[in-house]
Amino acid sequence: MSERLNRAFSEPAAGLTRLIMYLMAGDPDPDTSVRRLSGLAESGVDVIELGIPFSDPMADGPVIQAAAERALAQGMTFTKTLDIVRAFRKSYSTPLLLMGYLNPMLQYGWEKFIQDAVTAGVDGLIIPDLPWRESKGLRSLGTGLAQAAGGHLSFIPMIAQTGEPEDIKALASENQGFAYVLSRNGITGGEVEIPATVLNFIKDLRQLKLPLCVGFGIRNSEQVQRLAPFVDGVVVGSALVERFAALDAKQLNPGALIEREQEIFAWVRSLKATP
Amino acid sequence: MISDKIHELMGQGDAPGRFGPFGGAYVPETLVPALRELERAYRAAQEDDAFRTEFQALLSKYVGRPSLLYEATRLTEALGGARIFLKREDLNHTGAHKINNTLGQVLLAKRMGKTRVIAETGAGQHGVATATACALFGLSCVVYMGEEDVRRQHLNVLRMRLLGAEVRAVTIGSRTLKDAINEALRDWVTNVDNTFYCFGTAAGPHPYPTIVRDFQRIIGEETRAQALDRIARLPDALVACVGGGSNAIGFFRPFIEDEGVRLIGVEAGGKGDASGNNAATLSLGRPGVLHGAYSYLLQDEDGQITMTHSVSAGLDYPGVGPEHSYLQEIGRAEYVRISDEEAVRACELLARTEGILPALESAHAVAYAAKLAPELPSEQVIVVNLSGRGDKDVETLAAYLKGRSQHE
């Protein structure tokens, strides 16, 4: 795992827990993406997930589907996604994960994709349509290529509550930084209650001795407070994307827009603040 | 670009159900156990005499199988050349081959104790067939259908509702079959505990390409027996339309080892070869991952799935079943394309020479047979899989012909 990602999980969390936040690359345009990623880093976000837009995001709900459509409509590509990462890396060492579907990565050329991502400063990948069972070949090739390029790329595994024990054990056998635990069966977005069953599921996963971050449907500080004692981090995606999208829909002048973005960053800071 | 090394690596995933490098199960982690459960249940059902007997009984007593192998003598005369036979899947209950698969899958759903069935549909034939099977077994049924298809296949929407299914129009993306599959997958990943996804074509994640092919194999098995009975030999060529490819793979499969039998899949050439004007995935696409499988796709340089077009809703799909990708790669099957105009002319030709109105999907196969027959000697035999009937397309055809006469 990269030094940046390792540091994020080995040092104690600032606030209630670690906060992982998601934005779609190029929504609404690359410059805005760079500015907002920087804002997230300044607001104490521990890990950034940058979405690569895809035309057919089968694991995503309406909010992230719409973000992908906006990004693609204004001409976003994988090459431009890496430009955003490079621009961000000039000033920030917050670990950054790319989250995207397999096909655009394959079409860019898996080998080149890995090398260019590592060189740009990406720390890991989350690929919702590449389950652990199918990932072995691409993962071991990717890990090797990343090292050859002088870096490390984590393949963040996702753990579903439907997961079979042998699969969960297999994916936990390598520490990729953390495991992304799904709060429920389903797609991104919406709102999830945190029932006792989820907490019990997380408690059982503790024996894996792997940092655990929970995502899908996490959108307010009450949820973060309820989860914090049991997890190493929480992932907030749709709730953030939705806030920026609502702001963009107002078509404010640049000065006013930047001003109003501060309100969103204040909300970000409040998410893991001790009540 | 996908390098040769990666192409080969794609065939080495842990999930079974590969066709060379193609296939696999590229789905969210939540669905992995559901697909494995489905595979286990399917294997157990196959071994179970009671399941096979019940399925066979449904095919003969409910669907009306075996379907006829009909010699189209007037069509043959009109064209000159090889004799043309039609495998009449259009005569099945509900009017297409889709019912073979949905009865099998819904029987499986019942066996697995699932109470809710979901499906995607393009032309509406799979939706109607799923709604029919669910009505027969008393299961609740939700069908996802792109808004564009809801419009152009309105008759089938009404049929599904009469059969008690809920039709949900999908209003995102291209609003056609591909988006209906995305929405059905999103529903399944959310309701996986009680829901069975009745997949309509021989595509999608493993084990669907295998299950759907096996339930459609009956088309090829009957054709083989009927040909031996009627002409005392195997046909020289089989012709079938390919969208996702379920009718074609079921038709081809029992002939794979018979190298003297040409297997020809006909894709939707639409309005031409430019991107967005057709749905000719195998002819004009390249390999990639969509809807859980590694197979040919119509996509742009960045790996985004491109818009497709076909006058036939059932072929209007940017992917194709992985086994077809494999048959193309090893050269066992040929894939050709037929334009909207040629397909419409084939509808008219078959209607007027034989009194049979084919579905626009199946008309693509008829159109290619009409091109091929005159090039072959009269002792040769072509069998066309007439996968569905054309009642659902009457409005589309009328609109197309009106447009053409105005243009002329």
- Please give the oligomerization state of what you see: heterodimer
Which secondary-structure class do the elements of chain A indicate? alpha/beta
First-residue to last-residue Cα separation of chain B = 43 Å
Helix content of chain B: 40-55%
Residue fraction in strands of chain B = 15-25%
Strand order of the largest sheet of chain B: 3-4-14-9-10-13
Largest sheet features of chain A: 9 strands, parallel
Please identify, by name, the CATH architecture of chain A: Alpha-Beta Barrel
Fourth-level CATH superfamily of chain A: Aldolase class I
- Biggest interface between chains: A-B, 49 and 47 residues
Q: Remind me, CATH topology of chain A?
A: TIM Barrel
Tally of helical runs of chain A? 12
Shape of chain B: globular
Identify the CATH class of chain A: Alpha Beta
Main sheet properties of chain B: 6 strands, mixed
Uncertain runs of chain B with pLDDT below 50, 5 residues or more? none
Strand order of the largest sheet of chain A: 5-4-3-2-1-9-8-7-6
Order of helices and strands of chain A: HEHEHHEHHEHEEHEHEHEHH
For the record, give the distance between the C-alpha atoms at the N and C termini of chain A, rounded to a whole number: 33 Å
